[in-house]
Design a protein that fits this description.
The complex is a heterodimer of chains A (325) and B (314). By secondary structure, chain A is α/β, with parallel strands linked by helices. Helices cover 38% and strands 14% of the residues of chain A. In chain A, the strands form three sheets. In chain A, strands 2-1-3-4-8-7 form a six-stranded parallel β-sheet, sandwiched between helices. Chain A has a two-stranded antiparallel sheet with strand order 5-6. Chain B contains nine helices and twelve strands. In chain B, α5 links the parallel β5 and β6. Chain B is globular and about 65 Å long. Chains A and B meet through β2, α5 and α6 of A and α2 and α3 of B. The complex binds thiamine diphosphate (TPP) and magnesium ion. The site of magnesium ion has 6 residues of chain A, from β5. The site of thiamine diphosphate has 15 residues of chain A, from β5.
Chain lengths: 325, 314
Amino acid sequence: MLNDSTFPKNNSNTNSFKLAQEVIRIRLSQMLINELIKKKEFKIPIHLAFGHEAIAVAISNIMDKDDQLVLSHRNIHYNLARLKLLKPELDEYYLKKSGLAKGILGSMNLANEDKGIIYTSSILGNNLSVAAGLALGKKVKNETGLVTVVTGDGAMEEGSFYETLVFLKSNSLSSFIIVENNDWSLATSINERRSHIDIEKLCESIGVDYERLEGNDVYAYQKKMIELKKYAIENKQPICIEVNLTTLGFWRMKTNEFPLGKFVNYHAGNAPDINLLDSYNFFIIDNSEKDPVYVLKKYFDDNLINETSKRILNELKCELKEEIK
Amino acid sequence: MKYITYVNQLIKELVAEPEEIVIFGQNVSAGSCISGLTRGLTVKKDGLILNTSNSENSLCGIGFGLMLSKVPSIFFMKQQDFLLLGIDHLVNTYNFIRTKKPESSFTIFTPIIDNGYQGLQSSLNNFSDFCSIARIPGYAITNKVDAEKILKEHLISPGFRIIGISQRLCSEEILCPSLVNTDEKGNIFKYYSGNDATIVCFNFSFPQGLELYNKLKQENINASLFSVSSIINGDWSKIISDTSITKNMIILDDSKSINLSCNSLIKDVLEVTTLKSNILLSRDLSGDWLSPNEDKLVIDHNQIIEKIKKNNLI
Ligand SMILES: Cc1ncc(C[n+]2csc(CCOP(=O)(O)OP(=O)(O)O)c2C)c(N)n1
Ligand SMILES: [Mg+2]
C-alpha cells in the first residue's frame, strides 16, 4: 500500500492526478446514467459499478496496445475507463446506431475491440475460457501482451473458473484473472448461498499465483498491477487477483421475516439510494474506504477534488447535451 | 478403405497445409487418437497439437477465443454427448462471434454415437439437434463423396461449424456412390436420378438409403437418392422438384429426437405437391431404447416395394 506521503497533497499538476480524475469521471458518468435509469430511459438491463472504479482505472491504465481485456455483465467501469467518453456508451444503451457497438451488443455483452476489450459475456463463467483462447492465440502467434479477464465472486463458483485456471497454468499463458469480490451474487451474499471458498488456496493447489487487493486506492492498485504484469509476462504465468470491494447502492426487501426490510445489495438497474445532488462532496457515496472516490482524499485536498468533480460533471453534461435536457 | 481411415487421411492432408493451426482435444495425439480419427496428424512449425485436460466446456470457449485471435483451430472430441458440456458456448459465445464477420476458422469435430452398445450415453444420436439450437452450420459425413466435399470446403475455413461422423460407420468400408450434384456448401447431395421415387436420407441413414435404392432398382423402380448433410441453410427446392416428378417420397431418419429435421422438408413438399406415397422411415422407440442395443434403423424393403408398385399402377 502507498502511504499518504507518496503524493504531495494538492498537487494537481502531477501526471498522477490524471488517475484521480479518471476515477471521478467514471463515478460521475455512472451517476448520470443512474439518473436516466431512474427515469426508465432504457429498455435493456444495466449493471452499474459504483465502488468498482479504482480497479477499472488501474487496469485500463496499465494496458498497452497489445494487451486484451475480457469482461462480464458488469462492465461499465472498464468500458468507460477504456473509451474515455460517455456518449457512445449511452447511445449503445439506447440501442442507437451511434452506439459504441452500433446498438448490436447492448450493455451486458458490450465489448470494444479498438480499445482492447475483445469479448464480453453475460453468462457467468463463459468469458474465462474465451480469454484462455485469446492467451493461447498470443502464444501461437508469438505475440506479446497480457490477457486480463474479469469475473466475480458469483461467477467464480462456475466450474469453468477451475477449468480455465488449469488450462492457463498447464499452457504457461501470461494472464490476469480478476475476481471482483463484492460478496454478492444477485440477491444473495456469499454466506447465504455457499460455504467459503479460499481462492488463494484453490490457486495454490493448481500452482497459480494469487494476489489480494483491497482498499480501493487507485494509486496503490496501479503500482501493484505494474509489478504483477511484469511478473506474469516474464514468467509466462497466470495470476489470479482477488479484489475485495463493495458495490455501492442497496435497497430493502420487505418480507414476513423482515418487516422493516432485509438489506439487499445493489445488483442492476437504478441504485435508488444514490442521487446526483447539488451539494458539497456530491460525488462521494460512502465516507469510507469502500468508496474509491473517498479514498482520493488521502492524496488530494477536499477543495481540489470538489472543483475537479464540478468541472468533470460539466464536461460530461456538455457531452450529453441532448440526453439530459 | 474403412470410413474412419478415409476421413483421417483427408484430415491429415488438410491440417498439414496452414502455416498456423491449433489442433486440440483430449488424446488427439495419444493412445488410439480418438479411435484413429486424429492418428498421425502433423501441423506446420507455427501450429500446435495439444492433448488437453478433460474440460469440454472450457475447450469450446478456448476455440472461440482462438478465433477472436484469428488463429484457426479444430477441437476434436470423442463423442457428441461430451459437447453437451459446451452448449453455452455453442449458443452464447457463437452469437457474439457472429455479430462480426469471422476471419478465422473454428471447427468442432465429433463422432455421433449411433452405435447403441454404449448404453445410456448413446441415446443422443441426432446431429442436427446441436446445429438447430443456434442455427450452427453442421455437416454429417456418411460416405466418400460427402466426406471429400465437406472436409475440403469446411474443415478449415472462416467461420464456425460442427462436423459429425457416424461411430457405427467407422469400422465399415466407406461407401462411394456416384454424385449427380450438390450445392456450393455441400448441404444436400443428390446421388442418383430416377422417375419413380425420391429417397431422402437424414442424419446418418445414408447406408440404409443406398441399400433401399439398390433393392428398388432390382424391382425396376428407379429412384432418386438424396442425402441431407446440413439442415442449416437447407434449400429443399431440388428435392421438391424431384418429388413433383416421382410423387413418391421416402424419407429415412435414424435419429431418436422428437424434433426430426425431415419434418420441415415434409411440410414444404406437401405444400406444393400431392404425393401418391409419403413414407417416413424413422426409429421405433416403443421398446427399451436406453439399454445397450444394436441401435440401427431397420427397414422392411418388401413393404416399401409393394407400396410404390401399387401406387405407380394407379
Ligand atoms: C450461467 C449464469 N447463471 C446465472 C446468471 C444470472 N446472473 C447474472 S449476474 C449474476 C450474479 C453474478 O455475481 P458475480 O459474478 O459475483 O457478479 P456481480 O453481479 O456481483 O458483479 C447472476 C446469478 C447468469 N447470467 N449466467
Ligand atoms: Mg459478486
